Structures are given as structure tokens and as C-alpha cells.
Amino acid sequence: MVHQTEQTPSYLDDTHLTEIVTRVVAAGRQDDGAAWVAVRDNLFHPQGGGQPADRGWLDGCEVVPVRDAATGLVVLRAADADVRDLDGLAAGDEAKARVDADLRLLHAALHTAGHLVEAAGRAQDWTYTGSNHFPGQARIEFTPDDPGPLSDAGRREEAADRLRAFVAAAVADGLPVTAAPGPDGLRLVSIGGLHTAPCGGTHVRGLADLADVAITAVKLRKGRLRASYSASHRTAG
């Protein structure tokens, strides 16, 4: 049995780390006979917490990272079921891991922007109820104490403008984004002194890294308010 402590979530230590040489700590086969492996220094963010999985490669084989419920390990499977490049890897073997750097930074930007939109909604005394940080689908959902006034399109647009002003001011301030374990051991991600939430996702180093942050729509349905948004990672230079 492989213990979770034998795998380090490298993707949480440094969002900008996109290539590493590591070792296989476990290997096996799925029910259909396809190989899977788990590596010691896991570079790959698996889908979860509203964030999509990294696109990555292990020794040149494109892989899909999936968290195994039984062990807690993130295991890697070939993206193409017909590719057998992982078959020869065994525990102890050295392997080169790499993730798509541009996609990693986009996911980090969207996730951080989502936390910022959440903070903006909480500042309106709305209760956070859910999130999606996928490209093209990003949204934060809230439950207002009194959703009635927001059924009016004009009032909703006023609320959207308040969210936009909150977000724009925070981005302009370039607040730092940090992560640290909380009292109960959960990883807490903070945007300056503005907002803190438990999170296992990837994030930018500071709001100055964000570009094109926009609240694209605010809609009310069945008492829940959905704030859709978009964001990207600022390019160097």
C-alpha cells in the first residue's frame, strides 16, 4: 500500500513550476488493463474544487491526472487509451514531468479572479454558494438575503457595477496572494487582508499578475445570483 505522504503536491508549492524530474512511487493497471502511475513530486493539478485538470506529459506521454479516492494519490493515466507509453514505468523509475505552462497560468488566473469575485459578493452581504473556474464557464454563485430587488434588471446591473468597482480597485492595488496552512491544517489562500478561503487550487502570486478581469454578466435564478466572469494572466513585459 502506498501512503499519501509519499507524494508531494508540487503544483501547490509553486504555480510557475511547470517542469520537474521526479520518481515513480506507485504503478498499476486499471480495470481495462491500461497502466497508471503516481509520481513522488506531483506536478499535476487534478480536476477538483471548480478547477480543471492540468494538461501534462510524463516522459513525453500525454497524461490525465486523477485523484484516487482510496489512497488520496494523484495518479496519471495516458490521455489516449490506445497509447501504452506508461506500461514500462515501475516504482523507483526516474521520469520527467511537464505541464502546459500557458494553460496552468490561465487556470491560476481564473481561480484567483474567482476568489476576488467571491470577496466582492461577500462585501454585498451575499452568501457564497458555489463556483466554477473553467475557461469560458467561470462563475461565482451567491444567495442574497433578499433576492427580490435583484429581480429588477436595473438593480442587478447596479449590483454588477459594484462588483466591478470592487474587483478593479483590488487589482489596481496589486494585493499579494498567499497560501498557508490554517489552524486545522487546511490550506488557506489569502488575497492580502481582503479575503481568505480554504482552497487546493493554483493561484497567481499577486493581483498584479491578473489581466482582463471582467464581470461579464450577473443573473438571478430561483433566488441564486450568478456572477459570470473572465480573466487572464498578464504576459511578461
UniProtKB/TrEMBL annotation:
From the UniProt entry, list the residue stretches annotated as the region Disordered: 137-156
Which InterPro entries does the UniProt entry name for this protein?
Alanyl-tRNA_Editing_Enzymes, Thr/Ala-tRNA-synth_IIc_edit, Transl_B-barrel_sf
Molecular function in Gene Ontology: nucleotide binding
- SUPFAM superfamilies, per database record: ThrRS/AlaRS common domain (SSF55186), Translation proteins (SSF50447)
Q: What is this protein called?
A: Ser-tRNA(Ala) deacylase AlaX
* Species: Actinomadura namibiensis
